[in-house]
């Protein structure tokens, strides 16, 4: 399904038109928020190559649209957030010796290796397997429905989870838990995902997206500059380690943040005992 490019579908508060996508639904249910829904429920929301390319372009646009501050990412239906790559398409590529179109810089779904500027909150509405879990591993905050579970089944299929999940699992879960998951391809249950710190909160399926949007709205109410810099400053440790991340945070963003309009507004609002009036980030 295609996002309709009409004045009715695109709110007037956006400054740029979103890119055209065919395999996901893109809506703007609240000011400053984008909701992205993978729309292939009959295929457990698996992603063919062109769907990944579309999402890569969409996330890049999201980072450049001044009025957007947070995104929620989910899947259509009640079975799966995303079951990974389209394995039937991959088999055809293998059998025909066709050269697959390269994934975008952000990797699978434009997200598995995305750094980006702005946060993505996932509303995991079922299975997150293979590439779906690779995207989950690189999300910023995860809410899940009671039927959600997580899996890296690549060893069962003769492939490997090389889109970023293996080192991220090691960083998040440690050696022995990671080896248990990736060498057997077993399912990580929802209870385990919560206790291991992957999932923030379990929410009934019919309330899942609404809860994620409420949370995203809370993020959007903060200083856009501070959200961007705080997210990037924390994620640097994901890539480089604590000491280097601290140095890079100070070198790359501290001066720009402190000289920005939103820093001045936040401090003035504190002094004046009023709510701040944020402006679009220039970070």
Automatic annotation (TrEMBL):
In which domain of life is the source organism classified?
Answer: Eukaryota
Q: Which Gene3D superfamilies match?
A: 2-enoyl-CoA Hydratase, Chain A, domain 1
| Membrane-spanning ranges | none
Q: Give the residues annotated as coiled coil.
A: none
The name of this protein is Carnitinyl-CoA dehydratase
Q: Which organism is it from?
A: Sporothrix bragantina
């Amino acid at each position: 399904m295609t996002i309709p490019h009409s004045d009715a579908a695109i709110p007037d508060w956006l400054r740029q038109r979103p890119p055209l996508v065919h395999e996901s639904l893109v809506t703007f249910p609240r000011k400053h928020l984008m909701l992205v829904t993978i729309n292939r429920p009959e295929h457990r929301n698996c992603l063919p190559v062109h769907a990944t390319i579309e999402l890569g372009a969409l996330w890049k646009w999201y980072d450049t649209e001044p009025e957007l501050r947070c995104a929620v990412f989910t899947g259509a239906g009640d079975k799966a957030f995303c079951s990974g790559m389209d394995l039937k398409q991959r088999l055809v590529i293998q059998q025909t010796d066709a050269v697959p179109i390269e994934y975008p810089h952000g990797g699978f779904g434009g997200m598995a290796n995305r750094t980006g500027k702005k946060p993505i909150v996932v509303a995991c509405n079922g299975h997150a397997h293979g590439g779906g879990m690779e995207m989950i591993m690189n999300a910023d905050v995860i809410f899940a429905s009671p039927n959600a579970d997580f899996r890296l089944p690549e060893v069962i299929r003769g492939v490997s989870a090389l889109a970023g999940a293996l080192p991220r699992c090691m960083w998040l879960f440690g050696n022995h838990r990671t080896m248990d998951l990736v060498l057997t391809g077993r399912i990580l249950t929802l209870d385990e995902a919560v206790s291991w710190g992957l999932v923030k909160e379990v929410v009934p399926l019919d309330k899942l997206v609404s809860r994620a949007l409420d949370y995203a709205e809370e993020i959007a109410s903060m200083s856009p500059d501070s959200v961007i810099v705080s997210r990037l400053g924390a994620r640097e440790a994901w890539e480089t380690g604590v000491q280097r991340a601290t140095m890079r945070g100070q070198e790359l963003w501290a001066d720009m943040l402190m000289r920005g309009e939103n820093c001045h507004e936040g401090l003035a609002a504190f002094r004046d005992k009023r709510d701040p009036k944020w402006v679009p980030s220039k970070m």
